[in-house]
Amino acid sequence: MKRIIISSLGIFLLFGLVFSCKKNDINGDSKTLVGGSYITLDSTINSFLDISTSTASVSIKVKNTVGEKVASIDVYAATGTPLDTSKWVKIKTVAYADGVVLNVTTAELATAFGATPLSPGKSYTLQNQITTASGRKFSVNNTPSNYNSFPAYNMALTWQATAVCPFVQADAIGDYKVVSDKNWQDFSVGDIITVSAGPDQNSLSFLAYPSPAAGGANRQPWIVNVDPAKDVATMKDQYVGDYPGPVHANSNATGFVFSCTGLITLKVNVNYGGTIYANQEFILQKK
Predict the structure, then answer these.
(1) What is the spatial distance between Cα 141 and Cα 222, in angstroms, rounded to a whole number?
(2) What is the residue-level pLDDT of the chain in tens, covering all 287 positions?
(3) What is the rounded distance in angstroms from the CA atom of residue 138 to the CA atom of residue 90?
(4) Residue 65, helix vs strand vs coil
(5) How far apart are CA 31 and CA 22, in angstroms?
(6) Can you tell me the distance from the alpha carbon of 122 to that of 218, in angstroms, rounded to the nearest whole number?
(7) Contacts of 147 (CB under 8 A, 6+ apart)
(8) What are the domain boundaries of the chain?
(9) Which long-range contacts (CB under 8 A, 24 or more apart) does 5-9 make?
(10) What is the C-alpha to C-alpha distance for residues 87 and 68, in angstroms, rounded to an integer?
(11) What is the rounded CA–CA span in Å between residue 77 and residue 22?
């Protein structure tokens, strides 16, 4: 039954619900209610963009034209909201072939955003607009969102670039101010935490939960490991100390560490005496 439903939806998409544009712009023309076309995602090769290197790139591999044959793909940077085509800036046109790799470099994305500098930790939206052999154009702008987001179609119309900078331990150590501990509230904004080198070159160590203000005892350093190419931070589940009672506490965390800007942003899961408090926001900024 599921296969029949998916097949029916595909036919419905291709023969009735996708608007095409015969004009030389992005916007669809509702007067041309005809069969659609799209490309599918083969794989995401890299979604992390090292903005410290102009030639670094993010890339995806696309395949399988569905509908009319695709001639080319225009890649845009969405410099406003993802669906605001008036803020789409064209980066390049790529001739289509099954299995073609689309890539965007730091330099290309920076040019698209002009005077607005790329920021580590920010995710940038890239939009693909396909042009068919007959000259019709399709993108998320004229493809119903329920089709674009439906996993069974695996459309490759929108992709992401997350800006990062290479992790350098020496740049990351030092005194940090607490920017946010709004969920767990062991710390106040402006409290100082000293971050030290961890047990290897891609790790950091610092004391956090339980804080002295919360009556913390037997406090153990958090060990945060950082992927040096992606800035992705992880802390394995570990004993971190005791709260009054005593109540034993364990924590683990995921997030990012940007040594180039001195920003640590984590989502912490706290095991407080056997009860899990998930996704506690913890953000530090180097002084």
Answers:
(1) 46
(2) 333 334 434 433 443 334 444 433 444 443 443 467 899 999 999 999 999 999 999 999 999 888 999 999 999 999 999 999 999 999 999 999 999 999 999 999 999 999 899 999 999 999 999 999 999 999 999 887 767 777 888 999 999 999 999 999 999 999 999 999 999 999 999 999 999 999 999 999 999 999 999 999 999 999 999 999 999 999 999 999 999 999 999 999 999 999 999 999 999 999 999 999 999 999 999 99
(3) 15
(4) strand
(5) 10
(6) 37
(7) 9, 13, 17, 18, 153, 155
(8) 23-164, 169-286
(9) 6/152, 9/147, 9/150, 9/152
(10) 28
(11) 22
The CATH code of the domain at 23-164 is: 2.60.40.10
Which DSSP category does 15 fall into?
I
136, 37 Cβ separation under 8 angstroms? yes
- 174 sits in the region (left: phi over 0; alpha: psi -120 to 50; else beta) called left
**Residue 154: what residue type?**
N
Residue from 187, 214, 190 nearest 272 by CA = 214
CA separation for the pair 20, 135 (Å, rounded): 10
Closest CA to 143 of 44, 69, 7, 35: 35
Reference 128, options 50, 40, 13; nearest CA is 40
Q: Find out whether 51 and 118 touch, Cβ atoms under 8 Å.
A: yes
Q: How far from 34 is each of 14, 65, 155, CA to CA, in Å?
A: 8, 16, 19
Strand spans (E) along the chain:
37-46, 48-50, 57-67, 70-78, 88-95, 101-105, 123-132, 137-138, 158-164, 174-180, 192-197, 203-206, 222-226, 232-243, 247-258, 263-272, 275-286
